[in-house]
Amino acid sequence: MLRTNEKNLIMMSIQGKIANPGGPRAHSVDAEGKPFLLPGTGGIVYNVKVGDPAFGWEADHIEPCVSTILDEKDRYDRPNAGYNFYACIGNEAIIKSGDAKGKRGVVTGHHGGAEHVLIDFPDDVLEKLSLDDKILIKGYGQGLKLIDYQEIAVYNIDPGLLHKMNIKPVRDKIRVPVTACIPAELMGSGTGSLMMGAGDYDIMTTDRDFIKKLGIDKIRLGDIVAILDHDNLYGRSFRKGAITIGVVIHGDCRYAGHGPGVSTILTSSKPLIEPVIDPEANIAKILKIGRFRTKRG
Q1: Spelled out in words, what is the top-level CATH class assigned to the domain 153-287?
Q2: Which of 52, 128, 165, 262 is buried deepest, with most CB atoms within 10 A?
Q3: How far is CA 235 from CA 148, 192, 226, 253, 297, in A?
Q4: How is the chain split into domains, by residue range?
Q5: Domain spanning 9-141: which CATH class is it, in words?
Q6: Minimal CA–CA distance to 76: which of 22, 35, 112?
């Protein structure tokens, strides 16, 4: 069992609202030079959930279930940064107003650029939600450490989810179940970012044949994946032998340099993390949410 410092972590309330869907003013242009006009980020998405494919939707950077934000006018100011930072994957979210008041959900990621925190709720709750509703999150997880593996950094994950991931300590390494291993050269938008406690970065999908050959076109929202030779310790960058583990938080995109987004949860600049392929390594399956939520959930 992994020993952590979770008893010393701070649990802090943060509160946001449902983000209005952003609409395009004109056609965008994909990596092949073709124009497209598609739904994008934000809002209440009724038919896309964690556990669903990350590819194939007629959408751009689609965010599963419910997208939330603190302040749409000043999305890049410190309060919004705090909202993104404190919200960790696996945290509990509670609706505080409207017809669904008191219902609970689970944080599934935070999306850089849009500055959205993504939350999964059951279908019956989605039907009662409105864009005016307030949602409180019990932010818990930032500052988490593995006591016996000090050179592995932990970001953006609730300790409860970490313990359910079936991570195995093996001498000086840990073995982490993942659905896919992503080559370093495929990481695009967001590479170079220094803000490890928020946002994500994208798997580039312009070369569809290469993506299909590696089986990356089969990844799902909520999948836990390994990014090879990428160091996310103090920023997102290439480093031979480094390993980063993340969660797929949004869908594919047609822009050059973009694709499904990955939020970092574990990283080491040294080869101390051993990814092991496991088709079940998805937060929807682990937490029984999204597409794998029980009827009672």
Answers
A1: mainly beta
A2: 262
A3: 23, 6, 16, 23, 37
A4: 9-141, 153-287
A5: mainly beta
A6: 112
Contact in structure between 39 and 28 (CB atoms under 8 Å): no
Predicted pLDDT at 27: 94
| pTM exceeds cut of 0.85 | yes
Q: pLDDT tens for residues 77-132?
A: 878 889 999 999 999 999 999 999 999 999 999 998 879 999 999 999 999 999 99
| DSSP code string of 185-253 | GGB-TTTT---TTS--EEBP-S-HHHHHHHTGGG-BTTBEEEEEEEE-SSSSEEEEEEEEEEEEEE---
Which residue has tokens 């993504």? 118
* β-strands 180-182, 224-231 pairing: parallel
Tokens 């943060």 belong to 14
Token couple for 180? 């896919």
- Under 8 Å between Cβ of 284 and 65: no
| CB-CB contact of 291 with 284 (8 Å) | yes
pLDDT at 76: 73
Q: Torsions phi, psi of 284, nearest 5? A: -65, -40
